[in-house]
TrEMBL record:
Names of the cofactor(s): pyridoxal 5'-phosphate
Any coiled-coil regions, as ranges: none
Protein task: Converts seryl-tRNA(Sec) to selenocysteinyl-tRNA(Sec) required for selenoprotein biosynthesis.
Catalyzed chemical reaction(s): L-seryl-tRNA(Sec) + selenophosphate + H(+) = L-selenocysteinyl-tRNA(Sec) + phosphate
Listed name of the protein: L-seryl-tRNA(Sec) selenium transferase
UniProt xrefs under Pfam families: SelA
Main location: cytoplasm
Native source species: Rossellomorea oryzaecorticis
Lineage summary: Bacteria, Bacillati, Bacillota, Bacilli, Bacillales
Compartments (UniProt record): Cytoplasm
Amino acid sequence: MKALLRQIPPIHELQNTAEFVRFITTQDLSLEKGTEIVKESVALIRKRILEDLWDGPSPDTGRFLHAIFTQAALIKKEKLSLSLHKVINASGTVLHTNLGRARMGQETIEHMSKVASSYSNLEYQLENGKRGSRHTHAEKFICELTGAEAAMVVNNNAAAVFLVLTALAKNKEVIVSRGELVEIGGSFRVSSIMEESGAKLVEVGTTNKTHLGDYQEHIREETAMIMKVHQSNFVIKGFTSSVVTEDLVNLTSEHEQVIYYEDLGSGALYDFSKRGIGQEPLVREVIQQGSDLVSFSGDKLLGGPQAGIIAGKKNIVDILKKHQLARVLRVDKMTLAALEMTLLHYLQEEEDKIPAIYAITRSKDEVMQQSIEMIAQLKQRNVPFTFELMEGKSQVGGGTMPEVDLDTCLISLSHDRYSSHELHKELRLQEPSIITRIQQDRLLLDLRTVSRDEMDELIEVLYNLSNDIDRENN
């Protein structure tokens, strides 16, 4: 083994080889960076030899030099390649949390790009040349759409909840129904966020039933807030009872020190119920009913960037804006640019320009027509897959509207040399990655979540994959 290690060329000799010059040239590396990566490659091979794990050519053969630089190229790819990749979501889940939830529309992307590629008036008043506040940019649109007196934006809705509880209820009591102590993604719980904020949780009612009297019995001098949490990611059916917003608003109005705060979670500005899709409460309606504060997400049913939006009465929102956490939780210029353009689409009644709204409200017939067109194009290019159209269901996703199934049209895709699970993996490893779903051992494509531009890319990926399969089997 020691003899093998002694035969590994030193780095200065490797630098003088034609292979080294070819490596740094083809990989577009400086002499210093190329040398650093080759050192890593040699060290890794040395380690594998010592551990008796090296299965490559012996150092005393001519092929060993090639192995060093092949390994170096792999190290360079791993070290310097981007980890965030575009994927085509053909799963049919619109607000897919693992795939980034709501995607941006073209005009939103253009506005973000314009703001990101230049200086902006993020905290500067162009009218008088004085320092401004980043809170003002999206605030006017939020207030116009919701009827709130004031608003602010933080980096997500969990942050919004944390800020509200910390700033307004630290060391004081907050009353919450037991049926609303929800857990959101990643094991984050309302009760845990409340504990971190310093607020004291007062649970009332039971899991399935909470009455107005339960709240009334627990209001006392130490009570700072009644908090209602929308059950956005689950549904309780059967023998249930909860207190509506209007009744809780009336109750808190009888107690001057008590704030009524509603965490809406998903935060719908668009009335999906008019399209027969769910019964999601509208932010405007909750504020009109007299809520002091509401908070909701930007990247769920609103269809914008990740953000937590807080809206409500000006005197309360002003307290939040001045709190030290407001700076810790603030958003950047690109988030604000994306959010304000998304909100502008709502104000101009251009919801069809918001991809999430468009995808959720698409009819089964629209998805079917797109599916038929794609299959026709694939057959025209003689792609050797088998296609079958079938009815199915799409999901809204993102922890929203759990009771809603969207009627859709699915493409069942198969190949005589690959199982559905093998195809699922192969498509995931393509460039761009294609995310599909498997149901009853069928590989399914749901074009509800695939745009027309992406459909062309999807066709190209399937065409190239079929050629790769043919080469492997010939």
